[in-house]
Amino acid sequence: MDLNTVLEVRDARQLAAWRTGDAWLGGGTYLFSEPQPHLRRLVDLSRMGWEPVAQLPDGSLEIAATCTIAQLSRFAARFPAPAAPLFEQCCRAFLASFKIWNMATVGGNLCNGLPAGPMISLTAALDGSALLQAQDGSRRRTKVADFITGAGRKDLGEGELLRSVTLPARALTCRTAFRQVSLYGLGRSGALVIGALDPLDGSLAITVTAATVRPIRLWFPTPPGAAVLRGTLDAAVAGPEWFDDIHGLPAWRRHMALRLAEEVRAELAPHPSSPEEAAR
């Protein structure tokens, strides 16, 4: 897409006042996919030199906003953590060609805020926190599950930048389960459910994305029974929060989210010893 209203592309390393019509440019796969008549200047982050993925001294993982999907996939292939397979599963959940993989960024996927964004799924499921930087240089953190507030909506101020996402060390030790469904082969996700079982205390987190307008992350101190999981998920999602678009009606998305959540629970939770225990 030729963005013929853009008059300037500025290197983000050169400080300048933010103004109306500015936008951060990461990989550009969304910006250049459709008309952006409101834009006048792009602030290019590609030369910032941020390390794509770095393991911090405390064992947590910091993923730069400019890390591409291809870079994250290559890192995960040699990352020894138990949760590492989830990275590749989410990378493969993109409705994208290899060309997009090599340009699209983790930060861009989060900042688009689309329900089917698989980097939202990955980072929300692993209890990630987003580091945000304002124009005055001040920084704040927010959980990824709270960063996305609706379909295409996120907790970003004017000119605020998503710098990175940090995944805690403990989340990386979790055993995970992944389920995804689309209306048609290689289609956009209609429901995506991830489970993460903590080996230290036995708690279980189940995260639903794509089916809902925002990430729904449920945490249980011990793995629940099927009935409890279903009731908790249904109570956590208000009717209008089941997403509705050409890729799936709300009723179908709810049905699939509940079904996939139960599959994830059954894969990760110890088998109950009785029907009464299963219902708890």
Automatic annotation (TrEMBL):
<dbReference type="InterPro" id="IPR016169">
    <property type="entry name" value="FAD-bd_PCMH_sub2"/>
</dbReference>
<dbReference type="InterPro" id="IPR002346">
    <property type="entry name" value="Mopterin_DH_FAD-bd"/>
</dbReference>
<dbReference type="Pfam" id="PF00941">
    <property type="entry name" value="FAD_binding_5"/>
</dbReference>
<protein>
    <submittedName>
        <fullName>FAD-binding molybdopterin dehydrogenase</fullName>
    </submittedName>
</protein>
<dbReference type="InterPro" id="IPR051312">
    <property type="entry name" value="Diverse_Substr_Oxidored"/>
</dbReference>
<dbReference type="InterPro" id="IPR036318">
    <property type="entry name" value="FAD-bd_PCMH-like_sf"/>
</dbReference>
<dbReference type="GO" id="GO:0071949">
    <property type="term" value="F:FAD binding"/>
</dbReference>
<dbReference type="InterPro" id="IPR016166">
    <property type="entry name" value="FAD-bd_PCMH"/>
</dbReference>
<dbReference type="GO" id="GO:0016491">
    <property type="term" value="F:oxidoreductase activity"/>
</dbReference>
<feature type="domain" description="FAD-binding PCMH-type">
    <location>
        <begin position="1"/>
        <end position="172"/>
    </location>
</feature>
